[in-house]
Design brief:
mainly alpha, Small_drug/metabolite_transptr, single chain
Length: 123
């Protein structure tokens, strides 16, 4: 895999991970809510006007464009497993930004995922 191809894939993965983190930040500011007809409009307005949610959705849109560029250069059987890098990024940043638990079992799981990504990349 060439540096440009890997760069496109990594950029797409990081945008996707950033989108998840921004969406989580947005939902933290909105708070937990239930979907019902009674609160559909007020919650919909809160979601649609939340800067973190808007940023997260924007990251998703850009990541799709970057992903299309990557897929035009790399086989999907190589590119798609690279999305797993997002697990590592999200676990670390969720721990750092939101205080989420990263247990030893999760760390082992992440290590196994990364080993799989390395094997796919080297194949």
């Amino acid at each position: 895999m060439k540096a440009l191809e890997f760069g496109l894939i990594l950029f797409g993965v990081l945008l996707n991970a950033g989108a998840q983190l921004l969406l989580k930040a947005g939902t933290r500011t909105i708070g937990q809510f239930d979907f019902s007809m009674a609160n559909a409009w007020p919650i919909g307005l809160k979601v649609a006007s939340n800067p973190h949610i808007i940023g997260g959705l924007s990251c998703y849109v850009i990541s799709v464009v970057v992903w299309i560029l990557a897929l035009s250069r790399v086989e999907v059987s190589i590119a798609y497993p690279m999305l797993s890098i997002g697990y590592v990024v999200n676990a670390g940043l969720a721990w750092w930004l939101f205080g989420e638990a990263v247990t030893p079992m999760r760390l082992v799981g992440i290590a196994i995922i990364m080993l799989g990504v390395l094997l796919v990349a080297k194949s």
